[in-house]
Amino acid sequence: MKIKIDLNPLMHINRTIKVKPSVDLMLRSQELNIEMLESQDAEQDALTTSKNVLKMLKDMLGFIQDFTQINDEEMANFRKNSSMEDVGEVLGYLVMRLQGLSDDEVKSAQKKQELENKAAKSDPKD
After folding, report:
1. Out of 7, 43, 55, 90, which could bridge 13 as a Cys pair, Cβ 3.0 to 4.6 Å?
2. Rounded CA gap, 84 and 46, in Å?
3. Is the dihedral of CA 98, 102, 107, 111 positive or negative?
4. pLDDT value of residue 124
């Protein structure tokens, strides 16, 4: 079974891809998750934190490029025109699809997360 993904709404690349949800991609997504959690360690000094964030960002972009099968020129264009939030959204979408969620399920999960984030920002308890 392959995952079919339209890159146009995701990365503004006019192409649809089919990706096999391989063990390698699953392992890499878990490694990225661990890196993200480790980068949130408050006990690290500023230099270590900066190095970890840089490595994590490079790994995220490498994962996105490998998963989406885009070439170096397309990746350079994506990097130049994307914010960190955009990169996070693309990565989140790809990982959820890799975990077996349909496109509609991913959109529903993203909407739910947006509502939770808005509610947390407006919560008077903070």
Report:
1. 7
2. 19
3. negative
4. 64
